Structure formats: structure tokens, C-alpha cells
Amino acid sequence: MCGRYGALDSERITQFVRDLGVKGFSIDRNPDIRPSTQVPLIGPALEPVTATWGIQPAWAKRLLINAQGETVATKKTFSAAFHESRCLIPMDCWYEWRDEGGPRKQKYRFALPDGEPMLMAGLLYPGDDPAMVSLTIHPNAESAPIHNRMPVIIPSDAWKAWLTGTPAAAVTLIDALPDGTLKIEKV
After folding, report:
1. SS3 assignment, position 186
2. E strand or H helix at 4, and its extent?
3. Contact 28, 37 (CB under 8 A)
4. Buried/exposed 96-115: b ≥16 CB within 10 Å, e otherwise
5. How would you write 5-73 as a 3-class SS string?
6. The dihedral sign for the CA sequence 15, 11, 67, 36
7. Phi, then psi, of 170 in degrees rounded to 5
8. Which of 28, 56, 128, 130 has the least C-beta neighbours within 10 A?
9. What angle do CA 79, 82, 85 make, to 5 degrees?
10. Which is it for the CA torsion 182, 123, 83, 77, positive or negative?
11. Contact partners, residue 116, CB within 8 Å, separation at least 6
12. pTM, rounded to two decimals
């Protein structure tokens, strides 16, 4: 979980991020943003950054694209990035699939009811080739029937606290969206 997200209304997302005060941010319309691709995000210095979605530690057999919010502050793979370089990934939806007995799994889109942009919590691994992972958490009641995890969405009034606050303050922002917040539809 969250293995795909979208930027359906790129102009609205770009303006949303610029209204937060992040100069120079831009995102192209992409309804299906996948791991291992370059993605635009907001870095810890409140600046636009482009990073590859996923990290490949030497011990891992596959690309790691998510970190569990419950253990991100203490798990060796993620703790340094959590303490030093949190980021935000702007989007307006994410996708999950559920086996409903047909020949293919059913795809679902999760979004805010009015299509408002969201800020998914992430960790940035800076360097010559920056990379990032997104954070996930237990699902809220409306998401649970479809998937056992959901992305950590940082409220727009707490975005600076996520990026520049203390790790103790950031931990308090790791939670599922409140029940009744999402519009979920088959796609």
C-alpha cells in the first residue's frame, strides 16, 4: 500500500503547493504515478525536489516504496531519514486493488470528496540521485474493507510541522484520515 497515486488536476495541485509558499513547484498531470519513477515533492527545506519513488537497501530483495508509520521513527532503515529529512508528496488521489472474485482485481480510487489536493507523508533520501518512500498507517473504517493500509496524509495546516518540526512533533501527525473523509470509487 500505497503503490500508486495520481495527479489528476495538476494545475490545482501546483497552485495548492504554491499557495503554501513553495516557490517553483510544478507537477504534470499523471493519473498513474508508479514506484521507481521520478516524482515532484516538497523537501525538508520547504523547497521543490524531484526524487525517485523507492529505495533499494543492500539487504532488500525488492524496492522499498513505503515505511510503516507505526515504526518509522525507530526502524533502522527509516529512522535517520525520519529524524532528518521528512518530505511531502502532493497528490489528489491514490489507488488500491481488491480481489472480488473476477478475472482481475478491482481498482479503487481514494480521494477527498471535492478533489482537493492532499499531502502524503514521506521520507527523502537526499544525494546525487534523491529517493523517497511514502508512509502508511492502519486504515480508517471506510478504507479497511478494501486494503489493510492507507497513506499518511498530513493536514495542510500542519505541513510545516511535518517538514521542520521535531521528530516528537512529527510522530503526532502520523495517523489515518478521520472516518467519513474520503470518496472511494471503483475505476
Report:
1. strand
2. none
3. no
4. beeeeeeeeeeebbbbeeee
5. EEECCHHHHHHHHHHCCCCCCCCCCEEEECCCCEEEEECCCCCEEEEEECECCCCCCCCECEEECCCCC
6. negative
7. -65, -40
8. 128
9. 130
10. positive
11. 16, 92
12. 0.95
Residue 94 · residue 122 · CB < 8 Å: no
Q: Which of 167, 136, 117, 147 is nearest to 66 (CA)?
A: 136
- What type of residue sits at position 52? T
Phi/psi for 51 (5° steps) reads -140, 155
Predicted pLDDT of residue 1:
53
Q: How far apart are the C-alpha atoms of 89 and 122, rounded to whole Å?
A: 7
Low-confidence spans in the chain with pLDDT less than 70: 1
Read off the pLDDT of residues 115-133 as tens digits, 9 standing for 90 and up: 999 999 999 999 899 999 9
Residue 23 · residue 14 · CB < 8 Å: no
Q: Can you tell me the distance from the alpha carbon of 35 to that of 52, in angstroms, rounded to the nearest whole number?
A: 8
Which of these, 143, 87, 90, lies nearest to 117 by C-alpha position? 90
User: What is the spatial distance between Cα 56 and Cα 64, in angstroms, rounded to a whole number?
Assistant: 6
SS3 86: strand
Q: Which among 125, 166, 134 has a CA at the least distance from the CA of 153?
A: 134
Instruction: Determine how β-strand 66-68 pairs with β-strand 131-137.
Output: parallel
Amino acid at 14: T
